[in-house]
Design goal:
- It is built from 1 helix and 12 strands; from the N terminus they run ββββββββββββα.
- It is mostly beta strands.
- The longest helix is centred in the C-terminal third of the chain and has 8 residues.
- The radius of gyration is 15 Å and the shape is globular.
- The structure holds dTDP-4-keto-6-deoxyglucose.
- The site of dTDP-4-keto-6-deoxyglucose has 10 residues, from β4, β5 and β10.
Length: 134
């Protein structure tokens, strides 16, 4: 899988006078089975999250509120994605070094993940990541 596989996926947006509703169905909008959901919030201005890669984990990142950037690096190329629409999420494939920054105040980052949490899946050392990616 490559950086080109990491892409925005639009979710349905149902609008009426009461507001908007967006849904995510396993097997439909997200290209993996969802086994875990977590969310990041109350991020202090100027903070960064992430700065690691995952060996096998697939993720789908949704800006539930506010905005932030996700910077992906595959060991050779880097791409910055600005997430600011709650009906548009970013699919992140395995072996992408990711850094999240530029959080707006009050932003909420929802992450759907393909596996339960396990520290063994993380690559937290940049040099090790470059070796594995090459
Ligand atoms: C990612 C980015 C976008 C758990 O116990 N269970 C969990 O499901 C998660 C995600 C984390 N944790 C523990 C592990 C650490 O002790 O929570 C603590 C903070 O995790 P971390 O420093 O990895 O948080 P971020 O925001 O840097 O990274 C997280 C995810 O870990 C990572 O998979 O892609 O969000």
């Amino acid at each position: 899988m490559s950086l080109n596989d990491c892409r925005f996926i639009q979710m349905p947006k149902i609008s009426d006078v009461r507001g908007n509703l967006t849904y995510i169905e396993g097997d439909n909008q997200v290209p993996f089975d969802i086994r875990r959901v977590y969310y990041i919030y109350d991020v202090p201005g100027g903070s960064e999250r992430g700065s690691h890669a995952h060996r096998t984990l697939h993720q789908f990142i949704v800006p539930m509120s506010g905005s932030f950037d996700v910077v992906l690096h595959d060991g050779t190329d880097e791409k910055r994605f600005h997430l600011n629409r709650p009906y548009s999420g970013l699919y992140v494939c395995p072996m992408m070094w990711r850094t999240l920054d530029n959080f707006s105040s009050g932003s909420v980052c929802l992450v759907l993940a393909s596996e339960l949490y396990t520290e063994e899946d993380y690559v937290r050392d940049w040099d090790e990541f470059l070796k594995l990616a090459s």
